[in-house]
Amino acid sequence: MLAGLHVEAEKQYTQEVDTSFRVAMASFGKNVTGSERCSVVAVVDDKEFVLCSLVPNKIEQQPLDVVFSPGETITLYTTGKNDIYLTGNYIPDNAEDGEDDEDDEEIDSDEFDEEDEEGDVEELNSEEEAELLKLIAQEDEDIEFSDEEEEEEEEEKPMPVKKQAEKRKAEEAPVQAQKEKKNKKDKKNKNKEKEAAPEQAAKKEEKPKSNELPNGLIIEDIDAGNGPKATKGKRLSMRYIGRLMNGKVFDQNTKGKPFNFKLGKGEVIKGWDMGIEGMMLNGKRRLTIPAKLAYGSRGAPPDIPPNATLQFDV
To answer: N or C, which end of the chain has less CB nearby within 10 Å?
Structure first.
């Protein structure tokens, strides 16, 4: 069943979910104004998640695959000046689906029985009846002949002991070969599991390392990188994406000329001077910077509100 919601700009929609539903598409409406990016934000358990971002005349619809379950209290709202339409479908309960399937099967079987009962029955004429009796008599003869063959087989002389042993050995040979083949396969699988264990352990170790400093700055190393480290006084070239904690992107440098600055000289916010120090060439970090190490109580209107915690992928 189709599900849909018209999310108007600057409005919030809160609901406790009764029936599971999937959001499959987000798109602008017929009338779009301006060129400002608009994001769809979902709040679940007091946590905000950005489902997607749309840009007028560039990205006006975005496929999604987000499922909300019964019992969840969700809030949906948009950032920007345009309305966004969410569409998807309700997901029926599994138990109800099972009952429907059983009902369908019962209906199908009843219909099948009715077709058998209503089938046409043709009467045999005398010639056809005689032919049928003849065929039955031949089948009876074949059955009796088969019985005689079975009796003859039972009356055969017993096999000598030596031949019985050879026959048993020949029958056991394929079974033994199958056992040996299975043992080799099990041994090979165990070796593969042993080889895979270090790889899985290595993957676990590859999780981003997180370090929270006493001043509230959180540094996560996503990719350690290689080469020389960033130290105070060095001039650096950086790519970055800056977000508010609700997921809204307020600034980014992902193409063109990289952003250049001298580390530790106050050319950037304190969170950058402290959080980027020690990074290696080609490394990737996520910095969660409290307001006191960013733009403080004043913020940076209109994009950064007062006392905003910022998150940078650098």
So the answer is: N
